[in-house]
Amino acid sequence: MKNIDHYDLRGKRCLIRVDFNVPLDSDFTITDDTRIRAALPTIKKVLAAGGSVILMSHLGRPKDGPVDKYSLRHILPDLEKKLGLKVKFANDCIDAQAIELSSTLKPGEVLLLENLRFYKEEEKGDENFAKKLALLGDVYINDAFGTAHRAHASTSIIVRFFPGASLFGYLMQDEVMSLEKVVKHADKPFTAVLGGAKVSGKIEIINNLLDKVDNLIIGGGMAYTFAKALGGTIGNSLIEEDLIETAREAMVKAKKNGVNLLIPIDTVIANSFSNDAPKKTCKTNEIPDGWMGLDIGPETIKSFAETIKNSKTILWNGPMGVFEFDNFAQGTIAIAHAIADATALGAFSLVGGGDSVAAVNKYNLADKVSYVSTGGGAMLEYIEGKDLPGVSAILAT
Ligand code: AMP
Question: What span, in angstroms and rounded, lies between the C-alpha atoms of 88 and 96?
Fold first, then answer.
């Protein structure tokens, strides 16, 4: 890959697209700094190699120009603390001050630009805006995996202005290599574990994975659409009536491709959607009226865990039940542990998507799986088989 280890960065002003789109509370305190921490290795490498760093990112979804709420100024104190140095700030990402600050930047110094999305041109992929940003650096580095699926000015269009000088940062490289390992070069048996609330939004993933995996495990709310497609009664469980046929087609495709498609045998049911609701276990296809499935049952846990432990490659996206309720988190906990156990036995495991990442963090298993993706949307689009403009733009140069 075209990465920063293979380029002489000495004396170069490196314009790095990072993903500093972090959650902030009402006092502008960062509540989860994962994305900033993830960008540090690249920033530190450039500085150690004798370059200077110009950081650009978006924050939130500003609708109409600059607003203090979405100013990247709020993350300066945290960034300075993490880097252990003073970081300069440009109040606007393309104005005369930004040009002045970037042109006088010395090796070892860092400049942070104001929110790119204060300009509508960013998301529109405007070439002229990208050209103005490009004036600020000698080398372009993309380390923003979270926005790699968007053809924005700073993530892909800008590459046109850095012929021979567009590189991947370490985060981007690790994300893409982990995904390629799973999607293109998986050791077999390859098991994908999908969960979460809905089938919709995961149809293309299911379709694409059915051409690649040996086992496809379906848990969470989406499993009941499959159970209904098989003729079961599912009470008040989540259902997408309009996708019953799609679920049926997926099962036919699985059979045709020799994929072992597993849906829950038993289910933990409740009579209302609450942590304290009375609960019991029943067969997934025999859920009584007035009850809903909120977690996978013990027999299912055993069977899913067995399949996972016998796998060499595992991809996990989506919880097995309503894991936000402690009383319905057992399935998700058990599956997270099974993936960690399989990893300890030598499997490669990739976990991605907001809720599964939250789950491995909550159960302290993040360092017991092979890779935790930082980019939910980008990861899912890659698994759907789509091109990631942030990646392909650099590969094409
Ligand atoms: P998604 O965004 O589609 O990945 O869905 C994640 C959400 O699915 C989480 O908030 C879970 O609480 C929810 N979920 C998982 N299993 C169920 C279920 N059986 N019934 C209702 N919601 C569920």
Answer: 15
Q: Which atom of ligand 1 is nearest to the CA of 321?
A: 16
> What is the rounded distance in angstroms from the CA atom of residue 50 to the CA atom of residue 109?
10
Whether residue 198 lies in the annotated active site: yes
Q: Is the CB of 324 under 6 A from ligand 1?
A: yes
SS3 of residue 187 by DSSP: coil
**CA distances from residue 124 to 93, 121, 142, 151, 311 in whole angstroms, order as listed:** 16, 5, 18, 8, 42
User: Where exactly does CATH 3.40.50.1260 map onto the chain?
Assistant: 4-173, 186-383
- Which residue(s) pair with 141 in the sheet? 16, 167
Residues 6+ apart with CB under 8 A from 140: 14, 15, 17, 134, 158, 159, 161, 162, 165, 166, 167
Q: Is 160 a catalytic residue?
A: no
Segment 183-218, tens digit of pLDDT: 999 999 999 999 999 899 899 999 999 999 999 999
Under 8 Å between Cβ of 206 and 328: no
Report the range of poorest mean pLDDT among 9-18, 21-30, 85-94. Answer: 21-30
Single-letter amino acid, residue 163: P
H or E stretch including 168?
A: strand 166-168
Look at ligand 1, atom 10, and give the residue with the nearest C-alpha. Answer: 322
**Could you tell me the distance, in angstroms and rounded to a whole number, from the CA of residue 348 to the centre of ligand 1?**
25
The CATH class of the 186-383 domain is alpha beta
Beta bridge partners of 262: 217
Measured in angstroms, how far is the CA atom of residue 45 from the centroid of ligand 1? 39
Rounded to an integer, what distance in angstroms lies between the CA atom of residue 241 and that of residue 247? 10
CATH superfamily of the domain spanning 4-173: Phosphoglycerate kinase, N-terminal domain (3.40.50.1260)
How far is the C-alpha of 49 from the C-alpha of 100, rounded, in Å? Answer: 23
> Over the stretch 23-80, which tens digit does the pLDDT of each residue have?
999 999 999 898 999 999 999 999 999 999 999 999 999 999 999 999 999 999 999 9
